[in-house]
Description:
Elements: H1 2-5, H2 11-16, H3 21-34, H4 36-48, H5 55-72, E1 92-94, H6 100-108, E2 123-126, E3 131-134
Parallel strand pairs: 1-2
Antiparallel strand pairs: 2-3
Amino acid sequence: YLEKATSFFTWDQICFNVEKFDIYMEKVKDFYNKDAMWKEFIKIDIEESGREVNNQNINFFIEESLISYFITKGKTFLPNEFVQNHEEWILLCYPGKKMTSFVYFYQKNIFNINNEKNIYQDSFYDLDNKKLFDYNKLTCN
């Protein structure tokens, strides 16, 4: 069972699964350029990750925000042989604290997508502290 319980996808494969991904990405970049708070939160998250604040890292954070959003909102599909299309939810999990830029992006919900099938569509699980966060119950500061 273990070999079917894990899957690996490249970032590009996930992007290709979203119809008109490039158009969505342009809209998110436009949102970034117009929203000073999101800009600041991305800058802080980049600095806290120990990376240099530059266009490459900014674009990475923007793209990761969008892809994570699409995964949990059901806009893209991640094939999984173990559950064979019977998944009931998807939960983002990372070691460490939540990124404020993600919280803010999810709260803004700029594409107004609601995935009622996924009870964790607006959540994050901290693997280090074993804590579940609901983005809608958090403040960005």
